[in-house]
Amino acid sequence: MKEVNLTELEAAFQAKIDSEVRIEPKDWMPERYRKTLIRQISQHAHSEIVGMLPEGNWITRAPNLRRKQVLLAKVQDEGGHGQYLYSAMETLGHSRQQSMDDLISGKAKYSSIFNYPTLTWADIGAVGWLVDGAAIMNQVALCRTSYGPYARAMVRICKEESFHQRQGFEIMCVLMKGSEEQRAMAQDAMNRFWWPALMMFGPSDADSTNSEESLKWRIKRHTNDELRQSFIDATVPQAELIGLTIPDKDLKWNEARGHYDYGQIDWNEFKQVVSGHGPCNTERIAARKKAEEDGKWVREAAMAYAEKKKARKAS
Amino acid sequence: MSALNTYILRIADDSLILGQRLSELCGHGPAIEEDIALTNVALDLIGQATSLYEYAAEIQNGGKTSDDLAFLRLEHQYLNTLLVEQPNGDFGMTIVRQWLFDTFRLPFYEALQQSKDAQIAGIAEKALKETRYHWRHSSEWVIRLGDGTEESHYRVQEALNFLYKYVDELFYMDDIDKEMIEKGIGVDLESLRPAFNERLKHVLEASTLSMPAYEWKLKGGRVGRHTEHLGHILTELQYMQRAYPNLQW
Fold it and tell me: Structurally, how many domains does chain B consist of?
């Protein structure tokens, strides 16, 4: 058998990436590529699952029958996204159980935005519009990511997310056309969610530790700052259209750049939230832990029953 | 209020209140697949309730909307059975409650499809398709948990022992039902008992669970006398409509 050395394998791998050939589960890949993907996909899957909590917080209090159904369907979609993403992650040899354990122990991260509370009905609008809107910027790019199962999961997810983003914006539109209290509620949600939404794109390029390699391997196709800028450019006109004020006094259109300039993001707040000190980190993890623990006897029973059934069939 | 209106509200309120209970669980299920499945059931139930409230609002013809009926009645004006307002408890309690309800709803909608009221028949036909899926799902879980581990068997048996006293109310009938049966609109619930009992027995056998040995029964929901739980359910359900009256959302 011909001995293939690591350098040759890596070169062949990079050549595939460069010629836009998707990497599939059985293909050889550098260990760091696998690890980076496991980290990113599991983080993404956890964000979907933890993201069900702040929105789920309003299902029982949704203001009318239609909104209740739309919100239930949305949160259910997020669960579905979590499910395909965990499956994509499993193709890299990392189990869902391991990944859940890592979430509960705090080892695995999820999007910092879900550590903010949903205090009013308008927050459900703001989450759909801004948070799903920011997520789409990332996810559209990920439909062309180099790892096949991840890219395919993202295609399906993106279709649903853009629907959620429109629904969120529609909630905000209705509020802005409503009473003074409703408009104030919408503006308050905007004030609280705008900056955390910008932080969703991650640290600025100068400080992003994982960016360079991810770009080389085409896991990522745009830098954090590029995606953040696209989000701002797309969202500011939408806010203006319905009469919401962006809570950034430095925000202004820069004719020369063809983009909006924006103020300084509070990276200290971001670091605090990512490292576990946001307003709801403890509550979110506690809720996941409780679901995991409360479900243990159920999962064990399902397994025991499946075993019994198999044994009966065999005999 | 007409008998037809009351008849519709009784069906609608069962769906709404159970849907509301299940939606409390969204994001907290024992596994993602189950979270998604229960949310789906909640969604179907709230969809059924919506169609029924729309029809009730139409026949009342008093300017009320389906949302007014769902969100703005007083506690004693809700006509759901006591079973559906019981707390979710552990997953065993949730699934046994669902299974008892689905086992009733299945023959109920089968019969209601034949209603002479075309709107009701149409709603029943659509709801029956959903209920078949719900029933299969909840029955399979009862079997799995009953015949799973010692712990799961104990938990579902306890849930059944607790909930069984609310089962009989599903078959509650009064003058409203009589009038609806005479008009060919409603279903004679007594006629559903054999099919209900047969289905129950089949699943109990497969799950190795036993029928509770007691005889007592509780009722009251169909005439607006509820357990302590309903007031709390409504506090959440109605919060926005009560805090911000007469607004569009």
Answer: 1
